[in-house]
Each structure stands twice: as structure tokens, then as C-alpha cells.
């Protein structure tokens, strides 16, 4: 499949937006096909559990993205308390000097500060602001917001109506984890652990196992659904809208967003590459767009819950969000190695071990461009000493694997389970 180059005018109307939980993930997202990435600093972001970016990493990340013609949006999307506002002006000034292409915000007070202190900084309204109707969208447009990240609770018809009534960019999540709380504004974590999800420190309490206990039967725990691991009735399925990209584009969505700043680089590379291929396919032949079986097969190789279309088709019932009885993640592949480059003297891939593997195994090679390749591990050599090894058991050990052609950096090796 032809991969359209960024900057091509045919791509100007659609954007693939990928998460960047740290500098390594930013580079993976860029190389595997994102048009833009979103990230958070060490403060003011709703993903405190991600590694996030210190000042130096943010400067390097934005520079790397811009060299590849990829935009960077910085999340400042906490619901701020008074003390959060003290350091905000200096942080906004840094974001602007770093060259960010926009800022993702949910708090009206923070938005007002940005409009006053940094009026040229584009504002994207976070999904946490739960924009679910055209009147709200029009309000934010009048205030100066340039893009609205739509609430996940919207149907296609509702998106069409909003698009027809406002002249503002619309962004929608198309893939990744969802939250059982309304537009992600959950109180469970704060109530149960003291960790405030609305200030970036969610403990993911909804993913825990829950049972019912009857008042007069202490110690007797009853699962809501029969399952020996417990029940996960508050744990949502994962969103996958690969099939509905044309409908979303026709409804007025111009930015397709992937969730996952806390996901692995293997997850990110796989999902970004598939959605890149899907968007390119749609742009090349809108009328003939079809979801290829190999795309769906690839999406099963990353850690995920059962996939759902969420509320997009107007489904308000349990099929939209409630996870399968076990609530467990499933995956069909294990990420075992990250390629750092190629050694032409030895004819070998330079690989950083990320999971145990050994000589004789068959692995799959995932590359930023092109089809996956199946390879046989015929030998493993320690990168530092050159000694032959039967296995690569040590985390992040640098090794070399014989291979018949150069392999680009950030390619990945995985075992099909």
C-alpha cells in the first residue's frame, strides 16, 4: 500500500493523533505514522502515572516531531485546584517557547488564563469537558477554542449535528481504553485511595475485582457474574472504530485520536501503523474503503479488552461498554525486543531485549513501514563481548541477531503466542 507523505495536501483534512507517554513513545508514534502526538509534562496532565516529559525531554520531543513534520499538543487538562494555578503561567510560557502546536485543556479557569497570557497558543478542549451538544460547542468556539475533543458518549448522528452548527475542528477517540465514568470524570479513585483522577492520578479503581456482600452474611462474597476470578462490572471494553473512519470523517471529525499514554511501545507501534494504513486507504479510495482482515488480526496482537464501537452507533446498553465477565486483557503476541539499528560488519540487527527469548524460536518482525516478516533466531550474540548465547534472559540486554538485510531503528520483535 502506498504511504502518503505528511504535508501532502490530500492529508490536510484528516489527522492521526497518537499518544506519547514519554520520549521513546513519541519517537515510536512519529516513525510509525502519526500526523500529531499529544503528551503531558510532569504537572497539569491527567496521566500522572505515565513517565511524561521533563523540560529537556519536551524540547527534544517537539524538535524530533517537527523535523518529521508532526505536530505536538501538550495536555494541561487537570481540573485545577487553587494551588495548581501558582506555577501555571510559567509552565504555559515554557510550552510556547518549546514550540508546542497546541494545548489540551478542560478547566474553564485555565482556558481563561491561556487566552489572557498566551493568546496565540491554540486551545483544544479536552474530552474531560464532556462536550455533548452543539450549543456547548458553539460556546467554546465563541470563547476562542479552536478544537473540541468530543465526548465519547456521542453517536454519529449527534456528531453530525454538532459539526453542522459550529465552525471548529472536531476530534474524536477512535481506539483504546474507555472509562466507566461520564467523560472520564471519576470519583472512585479519590474516594477509595485518595488519588484524584481529575488531577491526573487515577488508581483505576474500576478495573479492580468486585463482589457483593450481604449485610447479614459477612465474609460471604457473591460475584455479580459467575466467574472464579471475580467480576468486573465497572470495567469497560476497549474502543475500536477502524470500520467507521469514513463515517466519522463524513460527520465532520478531522482528527482521529488513539488513547494510550500509559500503553507500551509495542501497543503504540501496532495500533498507529494499522490506523495509518486505514486512513491512507480511505484517502486513496473513499468509496472503496474496506477493513482488511490483517488489520483486525494485528489489533488482536496487542494487550486489549474485548473491542466495542462504544456509543457511536447509538447503543446505550451494556454492549457498548461493559467488559466481558473476566474483564481480563488478552493478546496474541509478546513483545521481546526493540531494534536499535543494524551492524553491517556482522550482518546483524542490534536489539535491546524486552522479554526473554532463545535460539531456535520463530519471531515476527514489525517495522515502521512495510509488511511484517517472520524470522528464525539462528544465533544470539552479546553486543558488548561478542559471546554467543543460547538465550537473551536479561532485561534490556543489548544483543545482536544475524539477519540478511538492514532493519530500521524502532522496529520490534515479538513472539506470536
TrEMBL record:
Gene symbol of the encoding locus: yegQ
Q: Name one GO biological process term.
A: proteolysis
Q: Please provide the record's keywords in A-Z order.
A: Hydrolase, Protease
Write the protein's name: Putative peptidase
Q: Name one Pfam family in it.
A: Peptidase_U32_C
Q: Can you give the residue ranges of the Peptidase family U32 C-terminal domain?
A: 334-414
Q: Which domain of life is it from?
A: Bacteria
InterPro entries per UniProt: Peptidase_U32, Peptidase_U32_C, RNA/ubiquinone_mod_enzymes
Q: Name a GO molecular-function annotation.
A: peptidase activity
Q: Which family does it belong to?
A: Belongs to the peptidase U32 family.
Amino acid at each position: 500500500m502506498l504511504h502518503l507523505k505528511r504535508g501532502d495536501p490530500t492529508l490536510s483534512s484528516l489527522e492521526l493523533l497518537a499518544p506519547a507517554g514519554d520520549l521513546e513513545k513519541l519517537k515510536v508514534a512519529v516513525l510509525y505514522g502519526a500526523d500529531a502526538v499529544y503528551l503531558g509534562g510532569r504537572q497539569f496532565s491527567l496521566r500522572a502515572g505515565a513517565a511524561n516529559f521533563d523540560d529537556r525531554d519536551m524540547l527534544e520531543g517537539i524538535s524530533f516531531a517537527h523535523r518529521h513534520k508532526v505536530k505536538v499538543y501538550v495536555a494541561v487538562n487537570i481540573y485545577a485546584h487553587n494551588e495548581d494555578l501558582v506555577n501555571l503561567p510559567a509552565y504555559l510560557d515554557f510550552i510556547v517557547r518549546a514550540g508546542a502546536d497546541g494545548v489540551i485543556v478542560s478547566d474553564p479557569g485555565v482556558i481563561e488564563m491561556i487566552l489572557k497570557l498566551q493568546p496565540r497558543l491554540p486551545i483544544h478542549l479536552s474530552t474531560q469537558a464532556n462536550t455533548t451538544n452543539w450549543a456547548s460547542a458553539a460556546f467554546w468556539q465563541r470563547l476562542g477554542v479552536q478544537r473540541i475533543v468530543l465526548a465519547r458518549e456521542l453517536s454519529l448522528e449527534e456528531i453530525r449535528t454538532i459539526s453542522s452548527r459550529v465552525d471548529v475542528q472536531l476530534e474524536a477517540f477512535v481506539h483504546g481504553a474507555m472509562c466507566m465514568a461520564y467523560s472520564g470524570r471519576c470519583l472512585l479513585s479519590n474516594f477509595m485511595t485518595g488519588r484524584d483522577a481529575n488531577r491526573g492520578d487515577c488508581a483505576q479503581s474500576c478495573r479492580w475485582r468486585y463482589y457483593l456482600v450481604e449485610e447479614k452474611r459477612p465474609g460471604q462474597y457473591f460475584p455479580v457474574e459467575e466467574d472464579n476470578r471475580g467480576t468486573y462490572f465497572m470495567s469497560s471494553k476497549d474502543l475500536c472504530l477502524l470500520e467507521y473512519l469514513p463515517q466519522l470523517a463524513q460527520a465532520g471529525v478531522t482528527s482521529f485520536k488513539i488513547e494510550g499514554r500509559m500503553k507500551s511501545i509495542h501497543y503504540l507501534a501496532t495500533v498507529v501503523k494499522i490506523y495509518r494504513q486505514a486512513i491512507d486507504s480511505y484517502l486513496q479510495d473513499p468509496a472503496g474503503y474496506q477493513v482488511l482482515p490483517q488489520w483486525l488480526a494485528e489489533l488482536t496482537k496487542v494487550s486489549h479488552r474485548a473491542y466495542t464501537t462504544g456509543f457511536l452507533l447509538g447503543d446505550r446498553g451494556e454492549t457498548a461498554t461493559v467488559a466481558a465477565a473476566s474483564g481480563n486483557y488478552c493478546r496474541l503476541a509478546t513483545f521481546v525486543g526493540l531494534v536499535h539499528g543494524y551492524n553491517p560488519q556482522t550482518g546483524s540487527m542490534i536489539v535491546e531485549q524486552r522479554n526473554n527469548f532463545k535460539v531456535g524460536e520463530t519471531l515476527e518482525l514489525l517495522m515502521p513501514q512495510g509488511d511484517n516478516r517472520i524470522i528464525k533466531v539462528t544465533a544470539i550474540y552479546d553486543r558488548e563481548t561478542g559471546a554467543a548465547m543460547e538465550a537473551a534472559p536479561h532485561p534490556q540486554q543489548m544483543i545482536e541477531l544475524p539477519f540478511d538485510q538492514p532493519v530500521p531503528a524502532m522496529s520490534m520483535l515479538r513472539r506470536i503466542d
